[in-house]
């Protein structure tokens, strides 16, 4: 009862509004609404897409690991804090063990075929699934996409992939942090491929030459297997592309377990 | 517009504030889950990481 009385009182107090008043008031609210909607859209792009993408990537990663079968994780001599000389000799032994040339991972069109590990990215490294195709639905939801026109892992030539820089998981956010000696690992059904970073460049978005078997060189027969990563540059724009090149330097089968550097990351991805 | 909506929500003031928050949350969720993913096909200021050849 009290409420009704005050509501009426308030209504009586309000000044009668002219037509101009109503229109201006409505336009003002409309502009504010548009502004809020635009801000929400930016928030969605920069924040919400990361959550969606992380969820989708986790699901495909888990599915893929099941396809790989039981992941072999060899015991690490780390916890048995014995003398360091034995550790280093063991490490040396592991590094020098040669499993021969890397086999080629056959990529079925549209399939998720691998997991890439980036010890340099983030505070503790990061890992993302790799799927065939660079369509929006792949790189928006599934992390890394492989350009189907480029070579397969282990083949001579260019294994080229794309991923987002600032949205949808921010997969290649730290691509500019790669430096001398950094390794990038690819786990597929064929084993662990170790790529060693050697160069990064910034090019125009139209510069498809970076995807050639020998980047920038038409018709040159490739002599080595490389990994090319493409993403947006500078951050928060799509004006240019940052391209990071790495060379295939090592390979070991899944049975041998993950390379030491990514042992913990593989355990994390598997659990 | 918004003043009119707020006045016409049922219940006492505290309930109307609560209702308004629910409505705002519902609209934001609807935008985030359905509208923006759809809009992203047409307007994507930050998302184009591919290069050359048939850029999607």
Name the largest protein-protein interface in this structure. Answer: A-B, 46 and 24 residues
Distance between the termini of chain A: 62 Å
Helix content of chain B: 55-70%
Radius of gyration of chain B: 19 Å
Provide the CATH superfamily of chain A: Sortase
Mean pLDDT score of chain B: 83
Largest sheet of chain A: 8 strands, mixed, barrel
CATH topology-level fold name of chain A? Sortase, Chain: A
Distance between the termini of chain B: 40 Å
Poorly predicted runs of chain A are 79-86
Beta-strand share of residues of chain A: 15-25%
Q: Enumerate the spans of chain B where pLDDT stays under 50 for 5 or more consecutive residues.
A: none
In total, how many beta strands of chain B? 0
The strand order across the widest sheet of chain A is 1-2-3-4-7-8-6-5
CATH architecture of chain A: Beta Barrel
Structural class of chain B: mainly alpha
Shape of chain B: rod-shaped
CATH class category name of chain A = Mainly Beta
Number of strand segments of chain A = 8
In percent, how helical is the residue content of chain A?
Answer: 25-40%
Textual characterization of the structure:
The complex is a heterodimer of chains A (271) and B (56). Chain A is built from five helices and eight strands. Chain A is α+β, with helices and mostly antiparallel strands. Chain A has a single domain (48-71, 101-270), classed as Sortase (Sortase, Chain: A). Chain A has an eight-stranded mixed barrel. By secondary structure, chain B is mainly α. The longest helix of chain B is centred in the middle third of the chain and has 27 residues, at 13-39. Chain B is rod-shaped. The mean pLDDT of chain B is 83. At the A-B interface, α2, α4 and β7 of A face α2 of B.
Task: Outline the fold blueprint.
The complex is a heterodimer of chains A (271) and B (56).
Chain A (H helix, E strand, L loop, with lengths): L1 H12 L5 H50 L15 H13 L15 E7 L7 E7 L3 H6 L2 E3 L10 E6 L20 E6 L2 E13 L21 E9 L6 E13 L10 H8 L1
Parallel strand pairs in A: 2-3, 4-7
Antiparallel strand pairs in A: 1-2, 1-5, 3-4, 5-6, 6-8, 7-8
Chain B lengths: L1 H7 L4 H27 L17
């Amino acid at each position: 009862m009290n409420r009704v009385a005050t509501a009426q009182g308030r209504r009586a107090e309000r000044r009668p509004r002219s037509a101009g008043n109503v229109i201006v008031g409505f336009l003002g609210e409309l502009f504010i609404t548009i502004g809020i909607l635009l801000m929400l859209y930016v928030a969605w792009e920069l924040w919400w897409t990361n959550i969606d993408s992380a969820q989708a990537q986790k699901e495909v990663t888990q599915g893929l690991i099941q396809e790989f079968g039981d992941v072999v994780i060899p015991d690490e001599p780390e916890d048995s804090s014995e003398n360091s000389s034995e550790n280093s000799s063991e490490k040396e032994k592991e590094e020098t063990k040669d499993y021969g040339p890397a086999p080629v991972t056959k990529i079925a069109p549209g399939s998720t075929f691998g997991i890439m590990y980036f010890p340099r990215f983030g505070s503790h490294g990061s890992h993302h699934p790799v799927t065939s195709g660079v369509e929006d639905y792949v790189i928006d939801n599934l992390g890394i996409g492989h350009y189907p026109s480029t070579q397969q892992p282990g083949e001579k030539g260019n294994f080229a992939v794309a991923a987002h820089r600032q949205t949808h998981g921010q997969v290649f956010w730290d691509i500019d942090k790669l430096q001398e000696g950094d390794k990038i690992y690819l786990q597929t059904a064929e084993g662990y491929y170790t790529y060693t970073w050697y160069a990064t460049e910034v090019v125009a978005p139209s510069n498809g030459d970076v995807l050639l078997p020998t980047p920038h060189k038409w018709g040159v027969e490739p002599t080595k297997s490389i990994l090319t990563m493409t993403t947006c540059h500078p951050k928060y724009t799509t004006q240019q592309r940052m391209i990071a090149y790495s060379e295939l330097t090592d390979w070991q089968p899944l049975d041998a377990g993950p390379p030491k550097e990514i042992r913990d990351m593989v355990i994390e991805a598997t659990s | 517009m918004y003043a009119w909506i707020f006045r016409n929500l049922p219940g006492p003031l505290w309930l109307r504030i609560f209702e308004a928050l629910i409505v705002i949350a519902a609209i934001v969720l609807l935008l985030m889950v359905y509208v923006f993913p759809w809009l992203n096909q047409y307007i994507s200021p930050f998302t184009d990481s591919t290069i050359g050849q048939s850029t999607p």
